[in-house]
Fold each of these.
Amino acid sequence: MSKLVPAVRSGDVLMPALGFGTWQLDNGTARPLVEQALEIGYRHIDTAQIYRNERDVGAAIAASGIKRDDIFLTTKVWIDHFADGDLQRSAEKSLEKLGVDHVDLLLLHWPKPDVPLAQTMAALNDVRERGLTRAIGLSNFPSAVMAAAQAASKAPIATNQVEYHPYLSQKTLIAAAHAAGTSITAWSPLAQGKVADDPVLIGIGETHGKTPGQVTLRWLIQQGVIAIPRTKTPARIAENFDILDFELSDAEMAAIHALARPDGRLGNWLDEAYSWDVD
């Protein structure tokens, strides 16, 4: 399968709008699934230090035979390594595990209040200046903290990776990101499988001959949002990639947006020092 995945301009890099996420793919499960994703046509792979699968992800990339420059590779620094010096060493360790000399994007995994943000951003910029990553970014940062991080950074923030799916509005954060010239990357874009039984998404899918999950992923990339669905089911990897041959109408997009609800957030692990955006 070979299809052209659209790219999103994010800071100073182009990111494929559809990627393969590897959260919870540990204990050797990541390698065969990443290998399959790359064979299908994915060229954006997302991992993190805390996922404990960087070695498997790197092995899959090496085994694929695909040129390193043709794969957009993201990893994330865990919050225990946000101090100057610790962050740089942790980035070097990630590269060693991945078996590469650089990643395309290095993210701060969650905001951490007990290390000054300016210190962390300076260390993150240092990693970029040393060529260990092409771009830097954030994950799970509310808009106010995202703005503070950008203000403390010499390099542009390439993306903010956050939970986003039909049941969680992120309109405030998305507007802030676009105004700053950065992008949003959606983790758990399928609401951890909850979209599969949604009658609105089922109905839209029947119109296009697509599954509710495919409709949801299409809804995301039509917004200019990057989606990184994760699945442990091999057949679903191909299904999630097959979203480039149809388009949702404005009315269909609006109907999906209307599914957002106040209790839609699935991962509420933000430190109490910070507050989520209220949409």
Note: The chain has a mean pLDDT of 96.
Amino acid sequence: MSSLPETPAPAIQSVERAARMLGLFTAEEPRLTLAELTQRMGMSKATVHRYATALRNAGLLRAAGGAYTLGPRVVELATAALAGLAVMKVAGPYMERLVAQTNETAVLSVWDGESPVVVRVDDNTSRRERIIVVTGSRLPPDSAQGQVFRAFLDPAAPGLEQVRAERMAFFAEVVDGIAALAAPVFQGSDIVATMALVGTTSSVETGSDGPMARALRDAAENLSTELGFVEPDRR
């Protein structure tokens, strides 16, 4: 007895599935085979192949060497998306000065709806031990950047009162031996990004009142002011 053909998915479901497939590709796993996509999507191989073919035709996927990677159209869309972020246009000088002041790696992240995503990295190339942070990396919600976003996206979020009060979060458990200190960047009244210093646990300060924390807070606040954030003196 032959099996019935799969019923075509509604348009909205098709878009959701296509977006979910594209989301499987990360900086850590830029290449995925059809078998890997099939397993992770939880659909039949024929259905996954149909979606992959459609995405290839749209330039969103590329097939090479028996595996798929994100296609050139994704780069164009990413460039357009970043161009639409005002913070990306003006953050550069603040981050460069921050690197010069602290001798650490400066990282700018935005919120993608679920977690922070790194959109800019300014590294100190003069250091013997360099911390590599990859643009496009998704960070855990409990990272320093994630704590800052959650604290200001949801003022009622429990356990983040100190982060809201100090506008600073420290975290050293995402990667062993690596620590981050993060501060919010506002546009208008909304948080639009976090600026962070990333380094070794021995080099990044844990407190919110040291010279490194003050440099980070000043950079984030000055960037926020350029983006139109104004508030009464809270100190």
Note: Strands lie at 61-64, 67-70, 105-111, 116-122, 169-171, 178-187, 190-200.
